[in-house]
Amino acid sequence: MPTFTLQALLALSSAASAWPHFGPPGPPLHSGPPSPPPPPSSKPSSWNLKKFTSLVAFGDSYTDDSRLSYFGSHNGSAPPVGWISPANYHSADGGRPWPQYVAQYAGANIYNYAVSGAVCSNNITPRTFSAINADFPDVDGYEVPAYLADSKYSYPNGTNALNVPVDSTVYSIFIGTNDLGNYAFIDDSQVAGKVIPDYIDCVYEQFSRLYASGARYFVLQNVSPLQLSPQYGLPSKGGLNATQYWPEKPANTTEVWGRMLETVTTVNDVYKYRTPFEILINRKYPGAHFALMDMFGLITDMYNNPSEYLNGTNPTVTGYVNHCTTAGTNCVAASNPDSYLWYDPLHPSEQAERGFARAFIDVVGGNSKWATYYSA
Length: 376
Ligand SMILES: *[C@@H]1O[C@H](CO)[C@@H](O)[C@H](O)[C@H]1NC(C)=O
Ligand SMILES: *[C@@H]1O[C@H](CO)[C@@H](O)[C@H](O)[C@H]1NC(C)=O
Ligand SMILES: *[C@@H]1O[C@H](CO)[C@@H](O)[C@H](O)[C@H]1NC(C)=O
Ligand SMILES: *[C@@H]1O[C@H](CO)[C@@H](O)[C@H](O)[C@H]1NC(C)=O
Ligand SMILES: *[C@@H]1O[C@H](CO)[C@@H](O)[C@H](O)[C@H]1NC(C)=O
Hints:
Layout (H helix, E strand, L loop, with lengths): L2 E2 L1 H17 L31 E6 L7 H7 L24 H9 L2 E4 L15 E2 L4 E2 L3 H13 L17 E6 L21 H17 L4 E5 L31 H29 L7 E5 L1 H10 L11 E5 L1 E2 L8 E2 L6 E3 L7 H15 L6 E5 L1
Parallel strand pairs: 1-13, 2-3, 2-6, 6-7, 7-8, 9-12
Antiparallel strand pairs: 4-5, 8-13, 10-11
Helix pairs in contact: 3-8, 4-5
Bound molecules: 2-acetamido-2-deoxy-beta-D-glucopyranose (5 copies).
One 2-acetamido-2-deoxy-beta-D-glucopyranose binds next to loops.
Keywords: Hydrolase, Signal
Pfam family, one: Lipase_GDSL
Protein name: Carbohydrate esterase family 16 protein
């Protein structure tokens, strides 16, 4: 649960630069390496959320509830302003998505703007949703604008559409699965000249827009260990030659696995350093509180310790529940879905997402090992 303030970082850096000149305050030099700084957990949490009433979530199919289905069943039209996504018992994880479990476990209002298939920006990695013959609605062009419109909207009876008090509402962004995946960066389908840092810039731009609208509590969920999923995995670990989401996957699955591993770890390393940079050094978000939530670490922990998370009869992290042809037809679901980390070649299972929800509630509680907290 590391917690950092600018003061603490400056204190550490000045202590470090003073060291060679003035000698260590503690044991003498010859006694060994300098002792590490005191554990950040000894400092009061900078997160300091007193009450958690509402979650506003942005993302893709790892978060989407019913929003893409609305587009699909309304000829590509967006839901009207003030539309609250209803619970979907057949979301991309085979059941309800994690924000519904945050609602169930924490009693929070959930305003879910995530859209399956979404990327951060269609100006960087547009991906076509064939059912509506258009790009999947993206975070930049659709999700955040839809939230901003709803946040200002009152129903005809005078009730505000959203209940989002500044001091008890958390805004989460969990995006990158599609941006970094197929028909996007991994197979070089981005708009010519666009690079992965453009996607990362896009994510921080969304925080800036939300901040400008008054939001103050943010969770940035880093990217998942996609190299562990059947779609991008190693052949020896259940990796597939082709899936319904990527029927024309290149033949060298080992190479795809390696490129995905490099991509997600590099992006997460950027998040790790850029998040404190924007908050503490660039001071882009005065008065705001951020938690950088380590979804990569959490899902990897599920992968390595399945029985701690999966409660079906025979936990498995390489197989998956719902088997379809590469055309997405003739799907057959395994019994005992809570045994699986993956619902299908690309999506975590519902039981995995219950775990996401529990971890998310801990993160919002200000004391999670899966988060690093920063305040400005
Ligand atoms: C669906 O949308 C397309 C493209 O916007 C439009 O041409 C078509 O008329 C619409 N169909 C219906 C039934 O509204
Ligand atoms: C006002 O209208 C909204 C949307 O129809 C509804 O959900 C809400 O319960 C209504 N509020 C009151 C106080 O009637
Ligand atoms: C994937 O393709 C390789 C090479 O063609 C083949 O040997 C292997 O059996 C295939 N794996 C699966 C799961 O179909
Ligand atoms: C597949 O890619 C891996 C990793 O890049 C490489 O070691 C291997 O030789 C490739 N296999 C083939 C058949 O080209
Ligand atoms: C697994 O645990 C969840 C609660 O986290 C529960 O809803 C579900 O029924 C359990 N599944 C099985 C197979 O026991």
